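Practice problem 4.
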């Protein structure tokens, strides 16, 4: 058993099941509230002991060191493994048809109605917003998430 599993006090299979259940809980919340997946929130839900220092007093709260820039995680905080796993999970959800990833472009023109006579006003440009999203269009089962969470060596290595 690796040091990390001993640190959490779980076997590998127990940790896989718990990790999948945490991911499923987060995805259910996102799906039912019509929100998009946020990498940082996902990491917080899955690795709560590591992030908050609950599992061990020798790991104090370090989230302030993440230094997200415009909502994107940067550097090596919280850890390359956590960020790589999150990227892998999102890629798997896309491949399995549970996730829509892309840009949403919204264009809104101003419309004003009054009882007064219209006065000549300068033409205003329409309001444009462009947003990159990871939106769930379906929920995977806990069993599928367990399969995704289970590490398998790459046969090409």
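Answer key:
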């Amino acid at each position: 058993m690796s040091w990390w599993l001993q640190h959490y006090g779980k076997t590998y299979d127990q940790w896989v099941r718990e990790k999948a259940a945490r991911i499923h809980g987060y995805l259910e919340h996102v799906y039912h509230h019509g929100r998009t997946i946020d990498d940082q929130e996902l990491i917080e839900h899955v690795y709560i002991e590591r992030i908050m220092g609950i599992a061990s007093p020798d790991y104090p709260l370090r989230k302030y060191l993440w230094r997200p820039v415009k909502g994107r995680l940067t550097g090596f905080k919280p850890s390359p493994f956590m960020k790589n796993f999150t990227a892998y999970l999102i890629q798997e959800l896309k491949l399995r048809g549970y996730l829509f990833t892309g840009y949403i472009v919204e264009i809104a023109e101003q419309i004003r109605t009054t009882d007064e006579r219209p006065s000549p006003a300068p033409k205003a440009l329409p309001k444009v917003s462009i947003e990159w999203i990871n939106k769930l269009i379906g929920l995977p089962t806990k069993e599928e998430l367990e399969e995704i969470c289970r590490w398998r060596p790459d046969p090409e290595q």
